[in-house]
Amino acid sequence: PFLPPPASVLNDPVLVSSLASHPHLFDVSSPFHLDKLRVFLRVHPNRPLVDSILDGLTEGFWPGHDGDFSATRERTPHHSDEDYTFLATTAFAEFEKGWLSEPFDSLLPGMHAPPTFVVRLPGRKPRQVVDQSSSGLNNGIDSSLTSVVYDTARDLGAVLR
Question: Is the pTM of this model over 0.85?
Fold first, then answer.
Protein backbone atom coordinates (compact mmCIF):
# COMPACT_ATOMS: atom_id res chain seq x y z
CA PRO A 1 0.00 0.00 0.00
CA PHE A 2 0.95 3.63 -0.44
CA LEU A 3 2.07 5.36 2.74
CA PRO A 4 -0.14 8.01 4.35
CA PRO A 5 1.43 11.24 5.61
CA PRO A 6 3.08 10.78 9.03
CA ALA A 7 1.34 12.11 12.14
CA SER A 8 4.09 14.74 12.47
CA VAL A 9 2.89 16.26 9.19
CA LEU A 10 -0.85 15.78 9.78
CA ASN A 11 -0.55 17.46 13.20
CA ASP A 12 1.89 20.24 12.26
CA PRO A 13 0.04 23.48 13.14
CA VAL A 14 1.91 25.50 10.48
CA LEU A 15 0.98 23.07 7.70
CA VAL A 16 -2.57 22.59 8.97
CA SER A 17 -3.04 26.38 9.03
CA SER A 18 -1.66 26.83 5.49
CA LEU A 19 -3.93 24.08 4.17
CA ALA A 20 -7.01 25.36 6.01
CA SER A 21 -6.53 29.00 5.00
CA HIS A 22 -5.89 28.28 1.30
CA PRO A 23 -7.77 25.08 0.34
CA HIS A 24 -8.16 26.29 -3.26
CA LEU A 25 -4.39 25.89 -3.73
CA PHE A 26 -4.48 22.20 -2.84
CA ASP A 27 -7.22 20.81 -5.06
CA VAL A 28 -6.83 17.12 -5.86
CA SER A 29 -8.44 16.18 -9.14
CA SER A 30 -8.44 12.91 -11.01
CA PRO A 31 -9.44 11.88 -14.53
CA PHE A 32 -10.84 8.66 -13.07
CA HIS A 33 -14.52 8.18 -12.29
CA LEU A 34 -13.78 7.29 -8.69
CA ASP A 35 -17.29 6.11 -7.79
CA LYS A 36 -17.21 3.62 -10.66
CA LEU A 37 -13.65 2.58 -9.81
CA ARG A 38 -14.67 1.93 -6.19
CA VAL A 39 -17.51 -0.33 -7.38
CA PHE A 40 -15.24 -2.14 -9.82
CA LEU A 41 -12.59 -2.76 -7.15
CA ARG A 42 -14.94 -3.59 -4.26
CA VAL A 43 -14.09 -7.31 -4.39
CA HIS A 44 -10.36 -6.91 -4.97
CA PRO A 45 -8.53 -9.15 -2.47
CA ASN A 46 -5.80 -6.64 -1.56
CA ARG A 47 -7.92 -4.12 0.36
CA PRO A 48 -5.01 -2.20 1.91
CA LEU A 49 -3.51 -1.53 -1.54
CA VAL A 50 -6.83 -0.66 -3.17
CA ASP A 51 -7.88 1.59 -0.29
CA SER A 52 -4.52 3.40 -0.34
CA ILE A 53 -4.84 3.98 -4.10
CA LEU A 54 -8.40 5.26 -3.81
CA ASP A 55 -7.40 7.51 -0.89
CA GLY A 56 -4.49 8.84 -2.95
CA LEU A 57 -6.70 9.56 -5.94
CA THR A 58 -9.14 11.37 -3.64
CA GLU A 59 -6.83 13.20 -1.23
CA GLY A 60 -3.45 13.11 -2.98
CA PHE A 61 -0.49 10.78 -2.67
CA TRP A 62 2.23 11.21 -0.06
CA PRO A 63 5.78 10.67 -1.40
CA GLY A 64 6.97 8.87 1.73
CA HIS A 65 8.72 11.97 3.10
CA ASP A 66 9.28 12.00 6.86
CA GLY A 67 8.18 15.64 7.10
CA ASP A 68 11.57 17.00 8.21
CA PHE A 69 12.52 19.73 5.76
CA SER A 70 15.41 21.10 7.84
CA ALA A 71 17.95 19.96 5.22
CA THR A 72 16.09 21.75 2.42
CA ARG A 73 18.11 24.43 0.69
CA GLU A 74 16.02 27.28 -0.63
CA ARG A 75 17.54 28.75 -3.77
CA THR A 76 15.96 31.17 -6.15
CA PRO A 77 17.52 30.86 -9.58
CA HIS A 78 18.30 34.07 -11.41
CA HIS A 79 16.30 34.17 -14.63
CA SER A 80 16.68 36.43 -17.61
CA ASP A 81 13.56 38.35 -18.63
CA GLU A 82 13.18 35.92 -21.53
CA ASP A 83 13.38 32.88 -19.24
CA TYR A 84 10.99 34.42 -16.72
CA THR A 85 8.47 35.08 -19.50
CA PHE A 86 8.82 31.49 -20.74
CA LEU A 87 8.30 30.07 -17.22
CA ALA A 88 5.30 32.32 -16.57
CA THR A 89 3.73 31.40 -19.92
CA THR A 90 4.33 27.69 -19.27
CA ALA A 91 2.82 27.94 -15.79
CA PHE A 92 -0.23 29.79 -17.10
CA ALA A 93 -0.78 27.15 -19.80
CA GLU A 94 -0.60 24.41 -17.15
CA PHE A 95 -3.01 26.37 -14.93
CA GLU A 96 -5.44 26.68 -17.85
CA LYS A 97 -5.33 22.88 -18.29
CA GLY A 98 -6.10 22.40 -14.59
CA TRP A 99 -2.64 21.01 -13.80
CA LEU A 100 -1.62 23.82 -11.42
CA SER A 101 -3.42 25.81 -8.76
CA GLU A 102 -4.04 29.48 -9.27
CA PRO A 103 -0.94 31.69 -9.09
CA PHE A 104 0.04 33.31 -5.78
CA ASP A 105 2.86 35.65 -4.86
CA SER A 106 4.86 33.93 -2.14
CA LEU A 107 5.14 30.53 -0.52
CA LEU A 108 2.90 29.89 2.45
CA PRO A 109 4.42 28.81 5.77
CA GLY A 110 5.53 25.19 5.46
CA MET A 111 5.78 25.29 1.65
CA HIS A 112 8.96 24.49 -0.21
CA ALA A 113 9.66 24.81 -3.91
CA PRO A 114 12.42 23.16 -5.93
CA PRO A 115 14.56 25.31 -8.20
CA THR A 116 13.16 25.70 -11.71
CA PHE A 117 15.35 26.50 -14.69
CA VAL A 118 15.09 26.97 -18.42
CA VAL A 119 17.36 24.91 -20.64
CA ARG A 120 17.93 26.20 -24.14
CA LEU A 121 19.60 24.05 -26.78
CA PRO A 122 20.41 25.29 -30.29
CA GLY A 123 17.63 24.51 -32.75
CA ARG A 124 15.22 23.26 -30.07
CA LYS A 125 12.38 24.71 -28.04
CA PRO A 126 13.25 25.86 -24.52
CA ARG A 127 12.55 23.33 -21.77
CA GLN A 128 11.46 23.90 -18.21
CA VAL A 129 13.47 21.81 -15.74
CA VAL A 130 12.41 21.34 -12.12
CA ASP A 131 15.44 20.22 -10.12
CA GLN A 132 14.18 17.73 -7.53
CA SER A 133 17.63 16.58 -6.46
CA SER A 134 19.85 19.48 -5.42
CA SER A 135 17.34 21.35 -3.24
CA GLY A 136 17.17 18.62 -0.60
CA LEU A 137 13.39 18.21 -0.92
CA ASN A 138 13.79 14.46 -1.40
CA ASN A 139 16.23 13.98 1.49
CA GLY A 140 13.40 13.02 3.84
CA ILE A 141 12.30 10.07 1.70
CA ASP A 142 13.59 6.79 3.09
CA SER A 143 15.38 5.18 0.13
CA SER A 144 14.72 1.70 1.55
CA LEU A 145 11.01 2.31 0.86
CA THR A 146 11.59 3.09 -2.79
CA SER A 147 12.10 0.03 -4.91
CA VAL A 148 11.92 1.62 -8.34
CA VAL A 149 14.74 3.47 -10.08
CA TYR A 150 13.82 5.58 -13.11
CA ASP A 151 17.30 6.76 -14.07
CA THR A 152 17.16 5.39 -17.61
CA ALA A 153 14.63 4.14 -20.14
CA ARG A 154 16.11 0.67 -19.59
CA ASP A 155 15.28 0.90 -15.85
CA LEU A 156 11.72 1.90 -16.69
CA GLY A 157 11.42 -0.93 -19.23
CA ALA A 158 12.54 -3.46 -16.63
CA VAL A 159 9.86 -2.24 -14.22
CA LEU A 160 7.14 -2.46 -16.88
CA ARG A 161 7.91 -6.07 -17.83
Answer: no
